[in-house]
Amino acid sequence: MSEHAPAPGRVDRESRLAHGDHEALRLWLRLLTCSSLVEASVRSQLRRDFNCTLPRFDLMSQLERHPEGLRMGELSRRMMVTGGNVTGIADQLVKEGLVTREAPPDDRRAFVVKLTPAGRKAFLRMAGAHEAWVARLFAGLPAVERRQLHALLAKLKDSVTASARSEAA
Amino acid sequence: MSEHAPAPGRVDRESRLAHGDHEALRLWLRLLTCSSLVEASVRSQLRRDFNCTLPRFDLMSQLERHPEGLRMGELSRRMMVTGGNVTGIADQLVKEGLVTREAPPDDRRAFVVKLTPAGRKAFLRMAGAHEAWVARLFAGLPAVERRQLHALLAKLKDSVTASARSEAA
Question: What pTM value is reported for the model?
Fold first, then answer.
């Protein structure tokens, strides 16, 4: 993909390098494709069965893991999917009685967002369906291969984190 | 994650099922995490080194693979990342002389978008850097594990595609 071809005398080493780079790129595109396919499927099933967007589901999922509530900033940072308007989604959930938003006594400027019991119930109903959809999407992989994939992705996560950290340093 | 616990007499089979579901969900979250980390890193490097957004890079990359040009609708469908405004990006690239947009003689209502030679040159410069960044992000995985990961993701892609197709049917 580089616009500068290697000089003929240096082909061997550079073409091996270019080949490795190209492999990593193909691996990245495949990873992105898988991730996009699963995301699109989950998105359309959430819409169809619960009239819910993925960012809204994601936001409720973060709150369900933190019964003590989360500050708005922390909630934004924890979101797994991008592109949702966290404040707008929270406003709507408050209006529907699924979430409360209150300023804690020790910091009146910070808002803490929490699921209400009705919000938790609504989320758990969706979460059960979501888990079953994901299981079906991944069902073509035998359990042993799912475990291998999980382990390789753990290594990849470490690799990416280490590389991104050294990049930022 | 389901709100209905299995009845005691049926625990065995259902808890195995629930365990498998939960494993698939963990695998999905790990896949999404890896994909998001790589995407965020690439996004910030494109911004820093080329003042370019990821959707703009993605759009130019689709055009580079299709020297004959793509219709706007087809271009939108081929985008790998979501959230970009394809028309807005194309407008801007036309303004910068990196892309042409012309109605073909046989269908005056359809616009065909193409890279100009300057656009292709600008893209290839970014693509070379991009490939090297991705190689660095994945460098923590030995070549043999990268190949395993590639093969497992191919199976996953098939699994997801087959499941999404039967879902839609």
Answer: 0.82
Cβ of B146 within 8 Å of Cβ of A24? The answer is yes
Cα of B68 to nearest chain A Cα, Å: 18
Residue to mutate among A15, A28, A157, with most B CBs inside 10 A, is A28
User: Using a CB cutoff of 8 Å and minimum separation of 24, what contacts does B148-152 make?
Assistant: B148/A148, B148/A152, B149/A27, B149/A149, B149/A152, B149/A153, B149/A156, B150/A23, B150/A26, B150/A27, B150/A30, B152/A141, B152/A145, B152/A148, B152/A149, B152/A152
Residues of B in contact with A143 (CB under 8 A): 20, 23
Chain B positions touching A14 (Cβ under 8 A) are: none
Digit-coded pLDDT (tens) for B83-97: 778 999 999 999 999
| Domains of chain A (ranges, CATH numbers) | 52-138 (1.10.10.10)
